Amino acid sequence: MNSAFSFDNELDYWLIVDALRLPDEMQEVYTQWPDVETEPLFLESDFDYLLQQSPIIFKFNNKHEHINGWLSKPILHSSSILIGKDPSTPNSELLAHLRKLLRVSIDGKIVFLRYYTSAFWIEFNDALSESDRDTLIAPATSVHWMQLPSKEPKSTRIIHSAQSRHEKPYYALGSEIFSKWV
């Protein structure tokens, strides 16, 4: 991988690319990883009627060599995040979580959350409460993003997955920074 930054070889990785921000580059991105399973993030979500504008999930899984492709493609850096997950975590569980994150409750208001870009993590990561970080990441184990001009990814991890919160209709986020944002 990258000489100064190493990814956990025991994890599977999924890349989420905000395809709407990169319409001219997406065909090249698909061509770069022809053997990778893809899925629209908005599929089977409250936003499935917007499939044409959906971010795309590239399921690298244990094909860690594809991470180098992400690292070496600066055009993707502002419009994507890489998610690390334990291989024992069912894909369906992570997909349900990622889709549920699209609508969250902040100060009692339901809002659309664009958590799938570097810009979100650059702005919010340092101000997240531990509870909100766990809510945003679990059942995955880590989120990685690029922050220019650095050529190495930044990341945030959780040590243990939070209990599933699928019984509530929306995740509630309470970090102070969200209150300023809404």
Written overview of the protein:
With 182 residues, this protein is α+β, with helices and mostly antiparallel strands. It has one domain. The protein is 27% helix and 24% strand. It has a 6-stranded antiparallel beta sheet, sandwiched between helices. It is globular and about 40 Å long. It starts with 11 loop residues before the first strand and ends with a helix. The mean pLDDT is 88.
Features:
single chain, 182 residues, alpha+beta, 6-stranded antiparallel beta sheet, 3-stranded mixed beta sheet, 9 strands
Give the SSE layout.
Blueprint: E1 12-17, H1 26-32, E2 37-40, E3 56-61, H2 65-71, H3 74-77, E4 80-85, H4 91-100, E5 103-106, E6 109-112, H5 118-124, H6 130-137, E7 142-146, E8 153-157, E9 171-173, H7 176-181
Parallel strand pairs: 5-9
Antiparallel strand pairs: 1-3, 1-4, 2-3, 4-7, 5-6, 7-8
Instruction: Name the helicity range.
Output: 25-40%
Order of strands in the sheet with the most strands? 2-3-1-4-7-8
Cα shape: globular
Head-to-tail CA distance between termini? 38 Å
InterPro entries: DUF4123
Protein name: DUF4123 domain-containing protein
Pfam families: DUF4123
Give the gist of this structure.
Helices cover 27% and strands 24% of the residues. With 182 residues, it is of the alpha+beta class.
